[in-house]
Each structure stands twice: as structure tokens, then as C-alpha cells.
Amino acid sequence: xxxxxxxxxxxxxxxxxxxxxxxxxxxxxxxxxxxxxxxxxxxxxxxxxxxxxxxxxxxxxxxxxxxxxxxxxxxxxxxxxxxxxxxxxxxxxxxxxxxxxxxxxxxxxxxxxxxxxxxxxxxxxxxxxxxxxxxxxxxxxxxxxxxxxxxxxxxxxxxxxxxxxxxxxxxxxxxxxxxxxxxxxxxxxxxxxxxxxxxxxxxxxxxxxxxxxxxxxxxxxxxxxxxxxxxxxxxxx
Length: 237
Known about the structure:
- This protein has helices at residues 2-17, 22-34, 38-51, 56-68, 72-85, 91-102, 106-119, 124-136, 140-153, 158-170, 174-187, 192-206, 211-222, 226-235.
- It is mostly helical.
- The chain has a domain at 158-236: Serine Threonine Protein Phosphatase 5, Tetratricopeptide repeat, CATH 1.25.40.10.
- α2 (22-34) runs parallel beside α4.
- The N and C termini lie far apart (101 Å).
- TPR repeats lie at residues 56-89, 124-157.
């Protein structure tokens, strides 16, 4: 009888050990996240956390799935938990900043991104998002500083060049904005808005719509940008 009991105990251990591990659930959740199946990912991450509630990356991933589901308060709780488990990782602060941006709280977002940068100063997206928060705060000069650093870290990021150029226009730094938009078009020639902004910068410097400006407006208009079509009709025909 003792031997039979021992066999059942051993069998139970084997069966228990054959169940999915927390990492198994996590990998399945990652696949779901990559495919945009956020609810399924969230459920799988709950299973991972049930098995191991001390792993910060599970909370980071769960926060990401909740963010994508627009459940921002719940996502914030997950990022706070990840931060409590590992205060050396910049990602919780970065994601907390993103939530504050979505919730139209640029000061809190700016501060969160600053904390993220203090932990990792080599991630271009942190500088980009902090720059956008600075723009929302009306701190355009600070935004340019951050755009510049983002560009150093990722020179081919079209978002950086686009928003940097727009911010330079707001500061009436038209020559600098032209450089930003030219750099954009060297990488991608499919955004009509950039041609339109470039035409605006050149007009601001020259005071008139010359042939180059009209060519830019025509290009933007042909790409379907209505403001460019209006300006082309008014100034170039």
C-alpha cells in the first residue's frame, strides 16, 4: 500500500510539473501581443503572474496589453508594480509617461520621461516623447534640445525630423526647419505635408512664392494635400 501511495505521489508531481510554466505563458502572450490579440495576451499574462508574481517583465507586458486596450488606469497599476519590482529599468517610467501623454497631462509625462532618461540615456524614443511633451507645455526650445538628441541616437527616424521641423517653424527658425524637412525627404518622399511645410518655410524666407515653392506646392497638391492645392491656385497660377 505504501508503494502504491508513493507511485501516486510521484505521478502527481510529474503531472504537475508538465503544466505550462510562467515563461511558457509569457511567450504565448508575446506572440498574441505581436499579432494584436491584446485580450488574449492579457489573459495569458494573468496566468504567468499567478505562477510567478515577482517577475517585472510580466507586469510590463500586461501593462502594454492594457494600454493597447485603452485601459489606462489598470495599465498604470501594472507599470507601478513593475517599477516596484525593479527600480533600475527605464521602461516602467517610459510607459507611465505615455499614459500621462494620452491623458493630456504633459507635465507628468515630461517628468516620467526625465526619470526614464536618468536610467537609460541611449533610447531615442524617450527623447522624442519628452520633446512632444515639452511642445505641449509650450517649451519649444527644450523640445528642440530633445529632438536633437533623439536625432543623434536615431538619425533616420522620420517622426523626429517631422516634429523637429514643425517646432522649428513655430520658433520661426525657418532655415533650420528647411534642413529638417530636407533630411526627411532624403529618407521618404511620400508625405505631402512635408512638401507643404517646406514650401511655407521657403516662402517665409523669400517673401514670395517662387518657382521652387510652386513646385513644392504642386507636388503636395498632386499627392492629395488640399491646403497645398489651394495655395498653388492662389499663388502660382
